[in-house]
Design goal:
single chain, 95 residues, mainly alpha, 3 helices, 65% helix
Length: 95
């Protein structure tokens, strides 16, 4: 007998039939909207456009803040390598 035990939710089918069923399931999954797209549609339904704009701007400001930190330390390294600025260790106080 060539039938194999199917996985949970799958009937017992032969190898060729199982492959056809798996390909059909894959086709259904790939043709349905993805998780990201479904999530975006949900957010669009519950969040007004003005709020979305504020959140985008806040994310941009966060990235600009990180850029400022990176730029500061790059300048510090460049100054140190050029022989100017601070020498040796740098103390950072944490409260």
């Amino acid at each position: 007998m060539n039938a194999r035990r199917g996985s949970a939710g799958m009937p017992d089918v032969s190898g060729g039939d199982r492959l056809a069923e798996l390909e059909a399931r894959l086709e259904r999954l790939e043709s349905s909207p993805g998780l990201r797209e479904r999530g975006r549609r949900l957010v669009d339904r519950v969040m007004p456009p003005e709020a979305a704009k504020h959140f985008r701007n806040a994310g941009r400001e966060e990235l600009l803040g990180l850029r400022a930190i990176v730029d500061y330390w790059l300048r510090w390294i460049d100054d140190r390598e050029a022989g100017g600025g601070d020498k040796g260790r740098r103390s950072i106080e944490v409260e």
